[in-house]
Amino acid sequence: MQLQDAGAGRTWDDARSMKEKPRDFGMSSTSATRTRNKTRIIKCGALPVLLNHLHSQSQTVVQLTVAAMLTLSSCKANKVAIASSGALQHLAEFVIAAIGLLENIVSSSESALCEAASVGGAIRILVETIEDGSSLGKEHAVGILFLICQSCREKYRGMILREGGMPGLHQLSIDGTRRAKNMARELLLLLRDYSDYSSRQTQIIMSS
C-alpha cells in the first residue's frame, strides 16, 4: 500500500523518486556545462593562441598548452576544429622534437636511459612510433629502443616483443632512413638471438 501526501497529492514513492532525480540531473547538467564551456573556448579564438604557445621557449608553457589542447579535444565538436586549424602539424613537430631530445639525452646518460625505460607505457609508445610515425620520428624511436634493449637485453627484450615490435622493425629495416635501417637491423638481432648479435659484434671489432 502506498501512503499519500494529502496536501501535495503525491505518494511517498513519488517523493522519494524526486529526491533522487536532482543528484542525477546535477551530474548530467555539470557534464553538459563543461562541454559547452570547451566549445565556447574554441569559438572564442583560443586555438591560434594555443598554437603560438607551442613554440614558446618555456617548457612549462608548452606542457600546459599541450595539456589544455588535450582537455579541449575531449569534446567531440572541438576535434574537427583542432584538426582543421593546423594544430596536428605543430603537434607532430613537437612530438618529433621531443623524441629526438629524448634520444640525445638517453644516449649520453645511463641514469636517464634507465628512467626512460621504466616509465609506464614508454616502450609501447616507441613501438607505435616505429609503426606509424614520421621517418625522423621512427629513426629516433628505434635508436632509443636499441639503447634500452642493449642496456639490459634480458629485462627489455620480452617487453619489446610483447608490444609487437617485430613487424614495424622489419619494415623499418627495409624502407627507413639509412640510420634507421641500420639501427632496426641491430635491434632485430638483439631481439632474435643474442648469440647472433655477439658474433656480429665480435666480427665488427676484429675487422676494425
Query: What proportion of the residues form beta strands (DSSP E)?
Result: under 5%
**Helical residue percent band:** over 70%
SSE run: EEHHHHHHHHHHHH
Question: What oligomeric state do the depicted chains represent?
Answer: single chain
Structural class assignment = mainly alpha
**Which residue ranges are poorly predicted, with pLDDT under 50 across at least 5 consecutive positions?**
1-12, 15-22
Rg on CA atoms, Å: 27 Å
Span between termini? 96 Å
The number of helical segments is: 12
- Return the average pLDDT rounded to an integer: 80
Q: Give the overall shape.
A: elongated
Task: Tally the beta strands.
Answer: 2
Main-sheet strand order equals 1-2
What's the main sheet like? 2 strands, antiparallel
